[in-house]
Amino acid sequence: MDYLNSPVGQIAAQLPGATGVFQKYGIDFCCGGKNSLQQLVQKQQLDGAMIVRDLIALEKDPLAEKDWNTIDLLTLVDHIYRDFHERHREQLPELIRLAQRVESVHGDRADCPDGLSAMLKEMRDELELHMQKEECVLFPLIRSGRGPDPERVMGAMECEHEEQGRRLDRLRAAIHNGAPPADACNTWRALYRGTKAFIDDVMEHIHLENNVLFPRVRAG
């Protein structure tokens, strides 16, 4: 594959382990998946040759993650529900609690992430509505293989993914990409570490739907 001239979403979908490389370099492979690697390398001033070397190394890595393009579609749907929907529902309440604690104790500091708990609550509410639509409408359509064409539902989900991507950008900025102050307490560090893990999980979640699940459903 010509990695530099390929859309990063396509690379992430076809090369197991590529999402980890993209997360390492801060490359948006979910909502920004239609951009070529070359475009994002130039925009973010990254070392394209190094990224390509990391991607090529994955081609020979026997421990790379599963190739979801070759796994049964219903297994993929179950994976998204079990390993992302349920995980997000576990992550957010604890992150909100940690954010409220940090804001309460360190609110007088200029570097306190004031407003982070409100951002996480908004993400929780919007993400819950989104996941319920998938669980109650889209996933049953895919599992049954009958009924209305799921295209309209998938299109709506993709639009919501765009908004989720913007929320993730705001969260990432609020936690300085997961880098707490040097003198941060353990709660503060746990908050940033957990929020960064949540952001990475949601990006992987969106990627699997936008770049793997939806194209496979559309292809029939």
From TrEMBL:
Hemerythrin-like domain sequence ranges: 79-216
Any GO molecular function: metal ion binding
A GO CC annotation given for this chain: cytoplasm
Location of this chain's protein in the cell: Cytoplasm
Keywords assigned: Cytoplasm, Iron, Metal-binding
Pfam families: Hemerythrin, ScdA_N
Principal place of residence: cytoplasm
Signal sequence coordinates: none
PANTHER family, sorted: IRON-SULFUR CLUSTER REPAIR PROTEIN YTFE
Protein name, per record: Regulator of cell morphogenesis and NO signaling
Source species of the chain: Fluviicoccus keumensis
